[in-house]
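Task: encode each sequence below as structure tokens.

Item 1
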Amino acid sequence: MSAAARSLAARLRAAPHSVATLSVRLAGIPLRRQGTHDSLCAYYAAATALCALHPWMAEGFDASRAEHDPLLAHLPRRGRSLDALVTGALFTGLHLRDLATAMNRVCRGTGTLFQYRVLHRRAVAQVAAPVLAGLPAVLGWEGPEIGNHTVVVHGVKRARGAPRTWLELLDPALALDAVEWGQLVALAGGTLEAILCVRHAGMRPDRVTTAKGPGGNLVRSHCRVERLDPRTERWTALVAPA
């Protein structure tokens, strides 16, 4: 991972003490919203992450037939018809492992590779590092108190001297906008899954770094908006301190 994708804890230690909290958020990612009566949060989260890296695929998700949908058409079927697969998914949802397979199939030849992972309780860095590098992550959980749900992680936040990491979310159900990793692990009983982008050769969402002082005031000298040049793989400041 590049120096720009160092952990927020390390970046906070390197910052002056006037910076109390530091957050990095990926900007301009259109959320694909889940319906009120379906179980397709994982599908919509995967579509959101996919279109963030390949915006030209967005039109395909408006297709009127499942066989023209970028994800549904590439799901493993295991002997089922596509209609049967989609009908079942409306009630029981889709597995992240199958969605990762579909994402890789539709991205074949583009230089993008996704990987499905089961996360342990200390694996927050596996989710945070791609986000810091400009790559949204799909995160799913299952727990007796919070049920089954899947979201897109598009931001990471830490406070100086605090061991907690907050994840900023794009939630297809519009229920959550942030969650603290330790609380999520506790509520999920340790059952966490992710689809992480481990290789991408194209454009990425713009990266917004926000630094705040102890009183919540902006520390403008450490705030910036950056864009990646995929030809050089270097981030260039679009908005930076004067």
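Item 2
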Amino acid sequence: MAPKAPIFPLKLILSQIKDMQVFLFRKTDLTAFFNQQAEAKTEAELSILFDDLFAFNAYLGRLEGYPSFEAIPFWEYSTCLEWVESHFLGGDSFDLNLKNARRFLGNVHTYYEHLISLSKMKDIANLDKAIKEICGGKKLKLVTDIPFTGTETYTAIYQGGKEVRFDVADYWVLILHSTLFDDNWTKLLEAAFGVSGERIQKVKELQSKMEGLGKSKLWDIAYHDVTKAEADRAEAWFFDKDK
């Protein structure tokens, strides 16, 4: 049995908010929100709420380009669920299943509703769509057809006090490195030479980045199983089949 997540009293939650590095969130809004929620929730419920919002904030820290909560596309919440499962320890509360997804997205929804009540957010249509598509049925249904361009951040690895970021195109290249080229950088580079100088540079930079971290394969950075849609998208991007 997985260990249960610790329970935090309100005072400790407020202290952690004070020390958080926030992304899109505002500390004053979070403080007011948890003070309000504490009037109706138990410490256990409040702790779960904080864990979910803390994890969501951490996920936002790996993204780039969203100016507001409203701008986050619906599919990003699906990716968030996968990322949080692999990056956070909270007993089994972040396991990928319908119950946890409903709770997690529901808690984000509760916070958004708080912002709307203060006229600090206009609508939550994208999150509503995510909840309907991901959690609306009898089984969890993650979004697999995501319109990535390749420039979006896939993940970041911290080592030696430095952050090394991998974009989605890096992830795509690593998929092909594993599935088409037998984890062989030379074969992958030869294929890149047949496509474009841009692909050659991408492969060389990725290999250098991986070696600098002492890593060499897809599963050194991947945080979920590769779907067929992702593999097809990776191949289409690498060989310029989209053009």
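Check on item 2: The first helix runs from residue 10 to 19. The CA atoms of residues 150 and 168 lie 5 Å apart.
End of task.
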